[in-house]
Amino acid sequence: MNSLSGRFLILTTVFVMLAEILIFVPSIARFREDFLLNRLERAQIASLALLADDMLAEDLEAELLANAGVYNVVLRRDEVRQLMLSSPIPEAITNTYDLRDAGAWVLIRDALMRLFTPENEVIRVIGEPVKGAGLLIEVTIDSMPLRMAMTDYGLRILGLSFVISIITAFFLFLAVRVVLVKPIKSVVGYMQRYAGAPEDARGIISPNSKVTELREAEEALQQLQTELTQALKQRERLAQLGGAVAKVSHDLRNILTSAQLFTDRIESSDDPLVRRMAPKLVNSITRAVSLCESTLAFGRAEEPAPTLTMVPLRDVAEDVVASEKLAIADACVEIVNAVPDDLVARADPEQIFRVMMNLVRNARQALVASGKPGRITIAGCEHDNDWCVEIKDNGPGLPPKARENLFTPFQGGVRKGGSGLGLAISQELVRGHGGDLVLTETGPEGTTFEIRLPQGDVTF
Question: Which residues form a coiled coil (predicted)?
């Protein structure tokens, strides 16, 4: 019964039974009232026989009482209370029930109390005579016949309710299968076929349900499948384009590397015009080589998973400083290694070196481009949950466009000719450690990046 229709069958049966039980309570109360009124009516008929003949034989009087199912009958006519028929009462009267002014809740309460009282009791019942034959009629009867009749009636009602609930649930079950289950299975079938071949447009669902909610679901699924199919085709085209670009970049890098060797000889030329134009040519070729290398690096299928060891971060920072000082030459840029000697973090030393190198190089290039003396500081600290490496400079800050696309490949470049791949690759490497690379500050006073590496275990 794990299916929708099966559960609906069970729930329908349960709810119909609950509804029948709610009907059962007033029904059993009504049955009790009718039973007692019938006893009163039969007792009244027996009393009328006595009125017709004041002298009845004892045997006939006992037979009238037995047929009426009572012990005695009291009839009030013209304000006179008369004991019309009587017989010995086996025990004292336990309760008296007046049916003349009894409300619904009183009748329900008395019926339930009688139904759950198994002992026989002698009870007095008071009512109004039928056909205006008096002011009041009162009888004394045993409670056991009443309880047995109520029990038999209740069992028949419950049995009928159960049959009705089963029949109702069965027809609702069939209706649900036709109206809901089959259309849902059809939608699931479309989803399964589409999942098997998402690039095949023939697997996209065609909305045809007449149920408003299901049709809305089919239309939403159709839109999702259409967009996903288009995205997959676009992704495939981009992958093919990326492969072509990587091949072109590889060959172009080799050509440009050879061109760099020729520019060394051009710089030694005695022609003043050649000597003046050579640096610009060298810079252009250098930028082109750098772009090719960045494109090839980013175009790899994925970066290798980091090999995590406990790394002294000051030693990594010192390697970065030493490498960048070779490129500073005569520029007035100072690089300071302020990482504590005892700061050790769990990281891949080669990948963290690349991240720190990218950040320091970006800062250095920004300071050189500004034409003003600058300072780059590499600092580090340890928090409760992570290690933090801070790369801070006092340069001009990042422009708004660069901040908006900071980690977006080919869009987050700051300097002219930059590809914007350095920060995208750096963020990918840091996230491979389970950490994050964030820009914490930028403006006229400078820019600060933070490398955050988690201290907890990381699952790759």
Answer: 214-241
207 burial level (CB within 10 Å; 0-12, 13-18, 19+): middle
* 324 and 283 co-located in one domain: no
Rounded distance, CA 39 to CA 246, Å? 103
Q: Is residue 180 part of a domain?
A: no
Asked whether residue 35 is assigned to any structural domain, the reply reads: yes
pLDDT tens track, the chain, 460 positions: 566 666 777 777 777 777 777 788 888 888 888 888 888 888 877 776 655 555 556 666 677 777 778 888 887 766 666 667 777 888 888 888 988 888 888 888 888 898 888 889 999 898 888 766 667 888 888 999 999 999 998 888 888 878 887 887 788 778 777 877 788 888 888 788 878 877 667 778 888 777 777 788 888 888 888 888 777 777 776 666 666 666 566 566 655 665 665 666 666 666 777 666 666 666 666 666 666 666 655 555 455 678 889 999 999 999 888 878 766 765 688 899 999 999 999 999 988 998 998 899 888 888 888 878 889 999 999 988 899 999 999 988 888 877 777 777 655 455 544 455 678 888 888 988 889 999 998 888 899 999 999 987 544 3
Contact call for residues 434 and 454 (beta carbons, < 8 A) = yes
Tell me if 182 is assigned to some domain.
no
- What is the distance between the alpha carbons of residues 427 and 287, in angstroms, rounded to a whole number? 22
Q: Nearest CA to 35 among 90, 99, 83, 122? A: 99
Q: Residues 360, 422: one domain? A: yes
Domain edge (last residue) among 298, 324, 341: 298
Structural domain of residue 351, as residue ranges? Answer: 309-454
Q: Tell me the Cα Rg of the chain.
A: 49
